[in-house]
């Protein structure tokens, strides 16, 4: 969902191919895509990049977006479109996408679980699971309702307590369900730490990137089987491969340094946006992820000039926060459950008040 793009927001397929080639060379053979990523272009890009490799040499993962399902027939249509886009006959893992209380209720209503299990019987899906964004009690309900092969949750050292990822991890582990981790570096935030949080990590290991700390922390959990990192360049991939190619868990001194970094981060009040863009497109033109990114960058670096310039000069007026009409559509799709209209209003006023 964060593939490299050119200045016109077109996926740089040559760069994607280099990344896939490096991944396969180094033994990274798990590729995750989804129907809405890059406005439907991610599946095409990934499928194209994998064509040079034998189908049994990699794992391809896709997801069923229940918000696109208006009637049962839509599930078949979407699934066949995904196979065509990815140029494949089957998916190794197929997930019910972004399950929360309402989307899971819809999945039950439309028989999505039975639909995917039927695809498994047809040989078009090998393993069945779900990706999840909600509270632990909702996760427990999903786990209790059906039998699952695998589950995908948001897990990182900030969300361990903030988003109750610790409880989610335990629910899945107790149920014997292997875990795929998404957002291990929280949409890139944990790879670009503010100075106060980065300092204790650099003091302990000046030779390691901030992202490597996040990945090693996640990898230290026994029931984590796959870590998804939304890499946007060969350089990011090389650093991640270097981090986990010869994995060593955090020792006690490193864990203490990370705890100091977490304490520094908790003192910074920012928007918990990962840039997933599920909130887009806004009916009134507000560029929600951009505004949150500008604000979060300001909170990390405290540069009012850059913040005001990025918002008032570089962001067209029709895309600014004051265009929000509080329709609430964005909140229906936000995996982080951010009160987006309230946040937009507060950010707009705070930036306008800057000297």
UniProtKB/TrEMBL annotation:
This is Aldo/keto reductase. The lineage of its organism: Bacteria, Bacillati, Bacillota, Clostridia, Eubacteriales. One of its GO terms (molecular function) is iron-sulfur cluster binding. Residues 315-343 form the 4Fe-4S ferredoxin-type domain. Keywords: Iron, Iron-sulfur, Metal-binding. Coiled coil: none annotated. It comes from the Bacteria. It comes from Neobittarella massiliensis (ex Bilen et al. 2018).
């Amino acid at each position: 969902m964060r593939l490299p793009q050119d200045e016109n927001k077109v996926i740089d397929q040559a760069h994607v191919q280099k990344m896939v080639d490096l991944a396969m060379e180094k033994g990274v053979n798990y590729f995750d895509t989804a129907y809405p990523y890059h406005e439907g272009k991610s599946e095409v890009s990934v499928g194209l990049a994998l064509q040079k490799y034998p189908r049994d040499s990699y794992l391809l993962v896709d997801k069923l977006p229940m918000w696109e399902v208006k009637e049962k027939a839509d599930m078949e249509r979407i699934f066949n479109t995904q196979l065509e886009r990815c140029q494949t006959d089957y998916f190794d893992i197929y997930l019910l996408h972004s399950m929360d209380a309402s989307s899971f209720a819809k999945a039950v209503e439309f028989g999505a679980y039975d639909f995917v299990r039927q695809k498994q019987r047809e040989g078009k899906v090998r393993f069945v699971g779900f990706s999840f964004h909600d509270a632990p009690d909702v996760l427990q309900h999903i786990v209790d309702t059906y039998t699952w092969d695998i589950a995908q949750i948001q897990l990182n050292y900030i969300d361990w307590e903030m988003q109750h990822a610790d409880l989610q991890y335990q629910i899945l582990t107790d149920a014997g369900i292997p875990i795929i981790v998404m957002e291990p570096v929280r949409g890139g935030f944990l790879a670009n730490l503010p100075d106060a949080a980065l300092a204790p990590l650099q003091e302990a290991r000046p030779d390691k990137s901030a992202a490597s700390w996040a990945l090693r922390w996640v990898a230290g959990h026994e029931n984590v089987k796959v870590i998804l990192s939304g890499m946007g360049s060969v350089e990011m991939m090389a650093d991640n491969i270097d981090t986990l190619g010869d994995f060593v868990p955090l020792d006690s001194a490193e864990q203490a340094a990370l705890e100091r970094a977490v304490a520094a981060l908790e003192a910074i009040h920012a928007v918990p946006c990962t840039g997933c863009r599920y909130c887009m497109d806004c009916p009134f033109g507000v560029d929600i992820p951009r505004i949150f990114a500008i604000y979060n960058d300001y909170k990390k670096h405290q540069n009012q000039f850059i913040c005001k310039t990025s918002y008032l000069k570089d962001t067209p007026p029709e895309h600014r926060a004051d265009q929000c009409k509080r329709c609430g559509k964005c909140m229906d799709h936000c995996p982080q459950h951010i009160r987006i209209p309230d946040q937009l209003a507060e950010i707009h006023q705070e930036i306008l008040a800057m000297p």
